[in-house]
Design goal:
Elements (H helix, E strand, L loop, with lengths): L1 H9 L7 H6 L16 H8 L14 H11 L3
């Protein structure tokens, strides 16, 4: 985790306390989209026009999982 934090800081990310984060106006936004199951950030991105397919991890796709599972079956 320390390495990740250092890389994020080096990339210009800033860490703030939960109190600061939840006082930001974006924390009170509840987008009117049917994409809230992926979390607030994905819902906000979807409300701003990002396509749902770009916000879902490939491993959540049933077809993808079927292919992975089929490759793991011992015959």
């Amino acid at each position: 985790i320390d390495d990740l934090a250092e890389e994020l800081k080096a990339a210009g990310w800033k860490f703030v306390s939960p109190k600061t984060a939840y006082s930001d106006p974006v924390a009170s936004q509840i987008p009117d989209v049917l994409f809230n199951g992926q979390g607030r950030v994905a819902a906000l991105a979807n409300a701003m026009g990002v396509k749902p397919a770009e916000l879902v991890q490939e491993s959540e796709d049933e077809e993808y999982l079927d292919k992975i599972f089929a490759g793991c079956i011992i015959k």
